[in-house]
Amino acid sequence: MNRPISAFRSLSLTFALLTVIAGVVPRAEADVLRVLVAGGGTNNVLSFDAKTGIFAGTFVPPGSGGLTAPQDLTVGPDGKLYVSSFSNGSVKRYDGKTGKFLDAFVPSGSGGLAHPDQVAFGPDGNLYVSDRFSATIKRYKGGTGAFLGDFVSDSRLGGFVEFTFGPDGNIYAGMFNCCGDQRILRFNGTTGAFMDVFGTGAPFLDAAFAGLAFGPDGNLYASRFHGDLVERYNGTTGVFIDTFVSPGSGGLNTADELAFGPDGNLYVDSLGSNKILRYNGTTGAFINTFAPMSSPKGVLFAQIPLNVFGAVGGVHAINVLCWNATTRQSLNVVLGPQNWNCTAAGLQLSPGDSIVEVVSGVVN
User: Fold this and answer.
1) Is the confidence at residue 15, as pLDDT, over 50?
2) What gap in Å lies between CA 141 and CA 130, rounded to an integer?
3) Domains by residue range for the chain, with CATH
4) What is the pTM of this model?
5) In which element (H, E) is residue 44 found?
6) Are the beta carbons of 2 and 33 closer than 8 angstroms?
7) Tens of pLDDT along 240-258?
8) pLDDT, position 199
């Protein structure tokens, strides 16, 4: 899904410009890689440039479709965006290209769903949703959202339930509140039956598991919510390897969900400092603050189209997304009929503004 975009973008823009000259109404789409993050306290989904972390706009507006206290997000096999809506017990579905609300894929309370936490599509194409405080992971039919039953039910999963599917197709779920002895539990990916305790940490750390992700090296990475760190476990045996991200590294405070990017680096939600932090995917060393954001929930890499529109006859305009370096707010700028070449260094609209998308061409 993730691929180089510069050549494709250039070809798409060239096509659009040629069709303008030929008198045809063009509409070209060139995919750009974004990071989508849900705002747990702002009831929206924000978009950031995947390379720079520059704010690229609000992808899902606040409260769209009744979205309240979103906790996680994922892209389905249909290319649509699915977001858990914690406060009204539902999972919302949005257009994966525009962010437009489509429907409540999982209606409020379906199958007893009260507080949806994490959402993920399984190898079988169905949607799995952890229900906070009920110690369950519920399953819904991938095509319709129909409730299929409680797939995993285990009292040790009381509280937050973060989980992931492993390369073996099984479910790995972290204990959060239960028992004062948090562990990573493994469940059969076909039946939901408990298999074993996969990881326990070494030395023992009484700090809840919050985020789980398998890395490019095949190992399992786990964030410890109250420990402000990320641990690494052998992806096959579950044996503790090391503390991959040391406590508080880069200002990590209340480590929540995490994900590896196409650059191979690790991205972690730091709830306590309202930031998304980036770490070297090989060494765990802090790289930078990828983006500041209030109550970040989830980290999702997705291809979002950059649209170029033209009209038959008259003036042809190109919309370019710019951002303010001081406020980190975005704005749309319309460039009129001219020869234009937009580069990050070549076009400064006003002090503090710079171009996000690097595109070039000729508009008649």
Assistant:
1) no
2) 15
3) 6-29+314-362 (no CATH), 32-303 (2.120.10.30)
4) 0.80
5) strand 44-49
6) yes
7) 999 999 999 999 999 999 9
8) 77
